[in-house]
Specification:
The chain has about 450 residues and is an alpha+beta fold. The chain folds into four domains: about 5-50, no CATH class; about 65-110 and about 235-385, 3-hydroxy-3-methylglutaryl-coenzyme A Reductase, Chain A, domain 2; about 115-225, 2-Layer Sandwich (Alpha-Beta Plaits), CATH 3.30.70; about 390-445, no CATH class. Helices cover about 45% and strands about 20% of the residues. The structure holds (R)-mevalonate.
Length: about 450
């Protein structure tokens, strides 16, 4: 297949033409297909085109709603953008379950962001470097004032600057570690701009200082970048209820809670299970993060680092029983923004934030953590009772039928058929073929 130099310089039409002629044998239908995903309103399409480089069309994700979340006494309809069939249903089920039991309670534990100037300094007397950095500390604040002024007016800015000696891990390696309050913005651009300014100050000041001799003035900046690991930007969400009110079908409340807590415990101690357990939590969190225009890769990376903070990967949620009460909670670092980035640009993000009552960043941390907890509660509730496939396959049935290109009336008939039966891929194909009056294929491609 051909390669190309200067692709980004081509017009959008020319990019499409190049792709279609080189990768789709010049098929005109493929061009129509791509264009069918363009927005009718040219200005909206232009906005999307300009979010990234080389946009040729849009990629749709379903935007669903999980209603009935009661968080700290306030009701929310929560927007979720996700492709997996059962996620919104599971979140909503958890919301309904806890709506009648006092809802979700949340606490913001901290909101600190972190960034580093990573540099190499090979002097032998480390205390001299510490003295130098301490002496110039006020300059890091004063000489970045042009960048930090607005953030300070909003109540944030640089919180602390610290020199960290990492030479035990890597010869000559030091960090200028800075902590920030970025208020309602996620703060990546702000932090990175400040850090790059810090590196210039370091380089300038080391030339001028009398605290170091000429041999000790060789300082090499490696890089300046925020850390997406924000263990001090953390929220807690919790639910609780009397154990004897938590019976499930044949199971008493005590039996259910015993099995549930055992499932949480397994995720706390067993990384294989913890990964799937946390994946379920992130199903909920990511879909809110995406719908509200935040960076789900940053949130994912941080959550999993946090889950391994004690040297072994484990569950993000925890449970306990005490004095007849079952308690289930999550503590998760979430660095989110409700201003800046896509939040004021993407029309669906603006809609999502409006639906949430235009939350500030801390409110959004609470909302996302609650959806993660709700998701995990519903998953564990199914896993320790009916099993996960019953609900999951019910939700997945429409995907199977769409892949078979079933008509609307066939879909209605088949969904009805499975009302009291367990859905499997082969059972769905079988009933579909029966209704259509066609032969059941011997091997069926799975969806
Ligand atoms: C599926 O996307 C998520 C689950 O596997 C989570 C879990 O096992 O806890 C159902």
């Amino acid at each position: 297949m051909p390669t190309i130099k200067g692709f980004s310089k081509l017009s959008k039409e020319a990019k499409i033409e190049w792709i279609i002629s080189n990768y789709f044998n010049g098929d005109e239908n493929a061009i129509d297909f791509l264009k069918s995903y363009w927005h009718d309103d040219i200005s909206v399409q232009k906005l999307h085109d300009e979010f990234i480089e080389n946009t040729i069309t849009n990629f749709y994700l379903p935007f669903g709603i999980a209603p009935n979340f009661n968080i700290d006494g306030k009701n929310y309809c929560i927007p979720m953008a996700i492709e997996e069939s059962s996620v919104v249903a599971a979140a909503a089920k958890g919301a309904n379950f806890w709506l009648d039991r006092g809802g979700f309670k949340t606490t913001i534990i901290a909101t600190e962001k972190i960034g580093h100037v990573h540099f190499i300094w090979n002097g032998s007397d480390h205390s001299k470097l510490f003295n130098f950095v301490n002496a110039i500390k006020p300059k890091f604040y004063s000489e970045t004032n042009a960048i930090t002024r607005n953030m300070q007016l909003r109540g944030g800015g640089i919180l602390d600057i610290e020199l960290i000696d990492k030479t035990r891990d890597e010869p000559g390696y030091f960090q200028l570690k800075a902590t920030f309050d970025t208020c309602d913005s996620m703060g990546a651009n702000f932090i990175n701009s400040v850090l790059e300014e810090f590196s210039k100050i370091l380089k300038n000041e080391i030339e001028l200082t009398t605290l170091l001799n000429e041999d000790e003035k060789d300082l090499q900046i490696i890089m300046c970048i925020l850390s997406n690991y924000t263990p001090n930007c953390i929220v807690r969400a919790e639910v609780s209820a009397p154990i004897d009110t938590l019976g499930e079908g044949e199971m008493s409340g005590e039996e259910f809670v015993e099995k549930f807590c055992r499932a949480v415990r397994i995720a706390e101690i067993e990384p294989y299970r913890a990964t799937t357990h946390n994946k379920g939590i992130m199903n909920g969190i990511d879909s809110v993060v995406i719908a509200t225009g935040n960076d789900f890769r940053a949130v994912e990376a941080c959550a999993h680092s946090f889950a391994a903070r004690n040297g072994k990967y484990g569950s993000l949620t925890h449970s306990e029983t005490k004095d007849g009460i079952f308690r289930f909670w999550i503590e998760v670092p979430l660095s989110l923004g409700t201003v800046g980035g896509l939040t004021g640009l993407h029309p669906m993000v603006k809609f999502a934030l409006k639906m949430l009552g235009n939350p500030n960043a801390q409110d959004l941390m609470k909302i996302a953590s609650v959806v993660g907890l709700s998701q995990n509660f519903s998953a564990l509730r199914s896993l320790v009772t009916s099993g996960i496939q019953k609900g999951h396959m019910k939700m997945h049935l429409l995907n199977i039928l769409n892949q078979l290109e079933a008509t609307e009336s066939e879909k209605t008939e088949i969904v009805n058929y499975f009302k009291d039966k367990i859905v499997s891929h082969s059972a769905a194909v079988e009933i579909f073929c029966k209704i259509r009056g066609i032969e059941i294929p011997k091997v069926v491609a799975k969806s």
